[in-house]
Amino acid sequence: CGWALALHGGAGTILKETMTPDREAGYRAGLEAALAAGREVLSAGGSAEDAVVATVMVLEDNPLFNAGRGSVLTSAGTVEMDAAIMRGRDRAAGTVAGIHGVRNPICLARRVMERSDHVMFCGAGAQVFALEQGFEELPASYFETEHRRNQLREAQEKNEISLDHNDHKYG
Amino acid sequence: TVGCVARDRNGDLAAATSTGGMTNKRPGRVGDSPVIGAGTYASNDGAAISATGHGEAFIRETVARDIAALVQYAGLDLTEAVRRKVMVDLPRIGGDGGVIAIAPAGAPVLMFNTRGMYRASACEGGDAKLGIYAD
Predict the structure, then answer these.
(1) Pair A148, A72: CB distance under 8 Å
(2) Of the N and C termini of chain B, which has fewer Cβ atoms inside 10 Å?
């Protein structure tokens, strides 16, 4: 069987008829880049956990996807991110919830798994752990995009809470 | 939400999920992504799973752990285990979303009950697959 890898970039009302060619090309390029990162790790004999982190980091850095840079906004207009990692051979796990300012939340989750006695940190405690572990705190402007601000405005006008992807057009 | 599951050459599995949550969510709301057993789970005895969708439904259905348990204890094929949770149990409580999963052997399974899911997969020696829409 050898190595194998799968990734997702979110689900929702994704319709071809409301997708522009440029936007679709952007998503495809993002998926290909993330897949390439994971494949590179696994084909070189790397571990599954290294592969999933490498893959997710690429997706977190891409503002098209709802994680890291490009995360959706809360009703208060803020970014709150969650991340988790789990290792199959010994069921080691690490998770963080309600964090901000961390470029790659998946790396912080991995640090929880590898360098703490716990499984989950949330909110202020997770931020303190991130600082203790040497994670840089980035400004909100790094994470927020115009697309997400438009999504929030429309969701608030409709008084709804929505998944990552919908068929609404902006601009 | 983004996620990844992998099996390395040693046969070890891993799962990872990362998200900004849902647009216009109330601050402090936590979905399934960081909840082990709901949106993320990995066991070499069953499967590795990462989910995306309405987090509350995935938590209530303990989707990720159930899929691994169906493989481990009930002996279900991974595809059937994922189908049962994503296409039967989740819709029953109005849960929209999808799952990627991988077992100690065989190809990854990618399944969703929405109109689309950004997704990709690859196996050693095989071609990469990439998809967006349901069809």
Answers:
(1) yes
(2) C
